[in-house]
Design brief:
Blueprint: H1 3-27, H2 33-55, H3 60-89, H4 95-98, H5 101-115, E1 122-124, H6 128-144, H7 149-152, H8 155-170, E2 174-176, H9 189-205, H10 210-229
Antiparallel strand pairs: 1-2
Helix pairs in contact: 1-2, 1-3, 2-3, 2-6, 3-5, 3-6, 3-8, 5-8, 9-10
Length: about 230
């Protein structure tokens, strides 16, 4: 066995482990921890590809394993989080299960991404890590601003949130990718704006600011698309 070639796969498995541990913590009644495990998984998700390119050991095996790990960490984990939150807010036997659209369309989006050659410099649809961060940090946003509880914590709101964000995963919507071809501000104005806003939100309210950053990401992408068409 070539140990060097297996190092990126080992990091990918740490991504998967993070997702599984996050699910366990959420099911144990610790929804705030879901975001921490998504962030941990996203960190491993970044480094597995980075290490593979650095060591020049990219492989089809690694690509497939990465997608399988992402389904759990960025699809099943946020889906279980929304399911658990909805279940605690309603006596309905049906509503909680409607949130499971998240892992279903996350898996579809990941499979689509592997085959879509258009996403080299822009994303088509909301990336699964961004969606997972949005959904798992909602409890942090509500904890920071309790007045949002009626708006974001009702079972209907949670179901609507799961469906809207899941549809964004597979929408034919061009979105900004944080891939810099140069350091010019003029060429990367939207990317720099997003990074500065993200740093500000995190310094201001930590994880509770992530939903605001994802919303800004969608709005900036929309503005860029409109101006680009002109």
């Amino acid at each position: 066995m070539n140990l060097k070639a297996q190092l990126p796969n080992f990091i990918t498995l740490l991504n998967l482990l993070s997702g599984v541990l996050g699910i366990i913590w959420v099911l144990d009644g610790q929804p705030l921890y879901g975001a921490y495990f998504v962030i941990l998984a996203a960190t491993f998700d970044f480094f597995d590809g980075f290490v593979a390119r650095l060591l020049k050991v990219q492989s089809d095996m690694g690509k497939e394993l990465d997608s399988l790990a992402d389904v759990v960490s960025f699809g099943v984990l946020p889906g279980i989080l929304l399911y658990s939150l909805t279940k605690t807010q309603t006596d309905s036997q049906i509503l909680p299960y409607l949130t499971l659209i998240v892992p279903l369309l996350s898996a579809y989006r990941l499979a689509k991404f592997n085959l879509d050659t258009r996403q080299s410099d822009r994303f088509i649809g909301l990336p699964t890590p961004a969606n997972a961060l949005l959904l798992t940090t909602i409890p942090h946003l509500v904890a920071h601003w309790p007045e949002l509880i009626p708006l974001l914590s009702s079972p209907i709101a949670l179901v609507l949130l799961s469906w809207i964000t899941s549809l964004l995963l597979v929408a034919e919507l061009p979105l900004i990718a944080l891939k810099f071809k140069n350091s010019s501000f003029a060429d990367n104005a939207y990317r720099y704006t997003l990074l500065f806003f993200g740093a500000f939100c995190f310094a201001w309210i930590q994880l509770a600011g992530i939903p605001l950053v994802i919303l800004a990401y969608l709005l900036l992408s929309g503005v860029e698309n409109l101006l680009h068409k002109k």
